[in-house]
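User: Hey, my collaborator sent me this sequence without any context and asked if I could get a structure. I don't really work with proteins. Can you help?
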Amino acid sequence: MKVEFTELGPIKILIVDDQETNVRLMETLLQAEGYATVAATNGREALTLAEAEKPDLILLDIMMPDMDGFEAVKHLKEDPVTQSIPVIMITALDDQETKIRALESGAEEFLTKPIVRVDLTMRVRNLLRLKKYGDLLSDQKAVLEDLVRIRTAELEASYRDTVLTLVRAAERKDQETGQHIQRVSLYCKLIANAMGLPEQTSEALFHASPMHDIGKIGIPDSVLLKPGPLTPEEWEIMKTHCVLGAQILSTGTSPYIRMGAEIALNHHEHWDGTGYPHALKGTAIPLSARIMQIGDVYDALRSRRPYKLAFSHQKAVEIITTGDGRTRPEQFDPVILALFYQNHSKFNEIFEGNTDVITENTIT
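Assistant: No problem. I've predicted the 3D structure and written it out in structure-token form, which is a compact way to encode the shape of the chain:
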């Protein structure tokens, strides 16, 4: 007798029949062919054994008490653990309706009693061969999926490196942006999670938001670093950083850079249509930019700039929620504004946890 093996050991066949003589007959026939066997006497026991033993094939009697073969095979095919195991249904009934019902229930093959050895062994062998090919395809699919995951991770790491390179270039123009970009990434992720956005969107926001001011690379230092109010002409120059940023990122193909371009162009647009560069209004402003805007404004209020002192957390929240003339609550998406207010203490935690020195010149 030649014992049949798989990579996990001998080929194992589960025999399910409430008649002990039938079980013994099939065990004898199959073991003579080199197969290992396990047996169950009813459908419920078969479900338990199939999940525990993970047989390579199941011979399943139809007419059994408590749970018949039709119900048992239905459960087997619904369970991800056992659904790929081929099933041969066996019965004394030889009508066409029973055969069709067996196949519709999920069985791959059908045999009638009395069992003929040649018929049994040929069908078992054919189904096992098909299962082997199916397992090979599944293994190849798993390998390909692993390769795709690895390649995707490598591409995402490459995208992040590109983002960091661009951001570092911007930092050389404006040293104040170093931790600012780190904080706004965390603010964006916080709001995205509070909104219940998909994790993929939240992660994209986290990695794309540092590029919001990349266009400042093209702003002259005399304007960007001016230690005082800008003239109307200088302010018009400063506002061009939105379009410049979008242009810089426009040829990017990664999802991070595409979202970065979207944020760069639109993060100074206002919900009430008073922003720039295109005076977009309401939901015409991309969601990513609406989320970015409130984090950007909060961090700008909290931070010292060449033209202003820093505000305390309480003062920044007050300005955002009630306005101060320059900043108005109407400029923010009302849903995002409400989420900001609900989570403003977490904004403060992010700011204080990602700041080397809290300036002594803070306006409260």
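In plain terms: The CA atoms of residues 159 and 355 lie 26 Å apart. You can pass these tokens on to your collaborator as they are.
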